[in-house]
Fold this sequence. Notes:
The protein is α+β, with helices and mostly antiparallel strands. The chain has a domain at 7-143: N-terminal domain of TfIIb. It contains ten helices and ten strands.
Amino acid sequence: xxxxxxxxxxxxxxxxxxxxxxxxxxxxxxxxxxxxxxxxxxxxxxxxxxxxxxxxxxxxxxxxxxxxxxxxxxxxxxxxxxxxxxxxxxxxxxxxxxxxxxxxxxxxxxxxxxxxxxxxxxxxxxxxxxxxxxxxxxxxxxxxxxxxxxxxxxxxxxxxxxxxxxxxxxxxxxxxxxxxxxxxxxxxxxxxxxxxxxxxxxxxxxxxxxxxxxxxxxxxxxxxxxxxxxxxxxxxxxxxxxxxxxxxxxxxxxxxxxxxxxxxxxxxxxxxxxxxxxxxxxxxx
Length: 285
């Protein structure tokens, strides 16, 4: 039995190069700020790229690898991620008021590998969410919220177009609506845009998700990021609801006591005893 092996599903382009090296590190999730696994791929032929490591897990699953059994039955799937999502919270925190060099922005004592994000961030990408200030060879950045929202809005619109053309349950339902309501094209576009908002909001804080929702023209109460709840909270809510439904606070009903049945013999004795004196009466003076 081997427990120190993991099963990854890679795209061919990730492993086709012989000199490519891959390393998995822990970085802060841009939405939850908790530890999340990411993969850096470095190669002499291509720039360094970043992937988030998604995990598919089911109980009672193992893998047969050559002549051994891997008891860890999880499936890990690296998918590309825009590194700007991970850098955005650090820009908001460190350089909202003044321009700061990038190497001083990407500092996190609990996640030392955060500085490696500089390898996957060309200067032209950073200019999408920050203003550049140059002094000789030093490049400093100052966070620009207007630019950041414009970048996110553009990303949502591009993603919305992809969702509208992809085949799948969402696309089929939208096509069905389109056939039934040909005059409601705007409604279809709104639906795909709202779906794109939900996907992008998964990489943003709740506050930033609300700002993006308003920037896209959705009421704040429609912001899908508000619905982000942990599985534990959802399960707890379901359990409480079930217990509440099963707990019936009713007042017990007191039933009248059943009338005792008297036999004929008992009735005859009671009739004979009526009018007779008790024994103690004969001893009274």
